[in-house]
Amino acid sequence: MGKLQNIPAIFKIYKSIRTFNSRIKPIQEAAKAGNTNLEKELIALYTYQWAEDTIEKLCMHVEVFGRENIPEKDGLVFISNHQGYGDIIVLFKALQGKQLGFIAKDTLAKLPLFGKWITTIHGLFLHRGNAKEALKSLSQGAKQIKDGYNLVIFPEGTRSKGPEMADFKPGSFKLATMAKAAIVPITINGTYHLLEEKGYYQKDAHVTVTIHPAVETDGLSRKEISNTIKNIEDTIRVAIKK
């Protein structure tokens, strides 16, 4: 019975992504015209509207703290823990006004709705088990960041499905350091209530998103980068328990 309860939620998300995909054309036209600012504005607007609509349909309650810590500039890397499928949705809401791409499994590229959507918002597909393709994705991502696009990374590599945070995987900060980008640490807590906690959809999930001060990576030595990564991981982890 539990899995049957997921069907309405899955249908709602599927329907909302179809709605977003109907707005892809203006984004593509702006990109084709070389109007990067308009392209990013449209991505930010449409993903925020999609998130608001989806959050309402799924009966989620989202609180955002620390919006004042979001830098005005772009070309940022947002580093967050990863509790559940709802994380991307709440980040689109929490980071209102920012174009956000994110790293996804390469298998999603083959899904008609998801693949087109992820590509349009400047997300990246990670080819696991293929070192050559993975390096190619890293180079592409670093270039996108340098070109002023923002990217979300979940360094745990997979959903924790609960309040505990797994250790960050080695190399998960490589994109940020390659692009010499500022990192904005983010703590998400509560998205696992939506689906992962019991294995089926639950209404009234309460989620908090805490945006921490940005950390610059440009000009840091290897040792400083190593210390910075540890500090960011600790910052995100500690905030879950508050």
Structural class computed from helices and strand pairing: alpha/beta
Full CATH superfamily name: Glycerol-3-phosphate (1)-acyltransferase
Query: Percent of residues in beta strands?
Result: 5-15%
Q: Which geometry do the CA atoms define?
A: globular
Order of helices and strands: HHHEEHEHEHEHEEH
CATH architecture classification? 3-Layer(aba) Sandwich
- What is the number of domains? 1
- Give the count of helical stretches: 8
- The level 1 CATH classification is Alpha Beta
- Write down the overall mean pLDDT: 91
Q: Report how far apart the termini are.
A: 34 Å
Low-confidence spans: none
List keywords for this structure.
Glycerol-3-phosphate (1)-acyltransferase, 7 strands, alpha/beta, 43% helix, 242 residues
Description:
Helix 1 (6-21) packs antiparallel against helix 3, helix 1 crosses helix 5 and helix 2 runs antiparallel to helix 3 (36-57). The model has no long low-confidence stretch (mean pLDDT 91). This protein is an alpha/beta fold and 242 residues long. The chain has helices spanning 6-21, 24-32, 36-57, 87-94, 112-120, 131-146, 174-179, 222-240; strands at 61-65, 77-80, 101-105, 124-126, 151-153, 183-189, 206-211. It has a single domain, classed as Glycerol-3-phosphate (1)-acyltransferase (3-Layer(aba) Sandwich), CATH 3.40.1130.10. The chain has eight helices and seven strands. Strands 1-7-6-2-5-3-4 form a seven-stranded mixed sheet, sandwiched between helices. Strand 3, helix 5 and strand 4 form a beta-alpha-beta unit.
